[in-house]
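Async update (no meeting this week)

Hi team, since we skipped the sync, here's where things stand on the single-chain job. The sequence we agreed to prioritize is pasted below, unchanged from the tracker. I ran it this morning and attached the output directly underneath so nobody has to dig for it. Comments welcome in thread, and please keep replies under the output.
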Amino acid sequence: KDEIDTLLVYVREAFPRIDRLVLAAENALIQAGLFSAVLTGFNVEAYQRLRPDPADTSNELLMRISMQLNSLSANAALIDSSRQFSGEPPPPIPASIIWINALWFASLICSLAAEAIGILAKQWLNEYSFGISSNARHVARLRQFRYDGLLRWRVMDMIMIMPVLLEIALVLFLAGLMLLLWSFQ
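Output:
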């Protein structure tokens, strides 16, 4: 952050709008990083609910062993040792769990996209002010060339998209959270 501030000294004097964009990009990057970190914890827990619980299979096998041992002590003639574990498929995963995971992973994708855009924008802004020499005419040409590139590649628009992506990510996360809480009824 300090390095970027140092590199953008020239930009701040000539183009104050660029300075505001750098601050917006930095703030959005911090928010996206924190949000992604928190969201990943939720995704890890929710993703585990998509798989059948191995404890359920173990419990079923232990129940069958217990029934066989009980039948062994009750009547040896009734033991059916040819009967095997049925291996019934696990119950289907509730649709709410699938929706929760879909919403939370979509939220994570939006948050990571905002981070990627922020990193790219900060790199563009670094390049904008990097390598300025002492020749005034050369500096003016180089700065204008880079400024035209910023406009052509719509870097300013990309920075403005970051908060929108973060808001979409937050809405998707909250929708998944509401669905999770609603599924507990």
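Quick observations from my side:
Confidence is low (pLDDT under 50) at residues 1-15.
Residues 68 and 79 are 7 Å apart (CA to CA).
Reply here if anything looks off.
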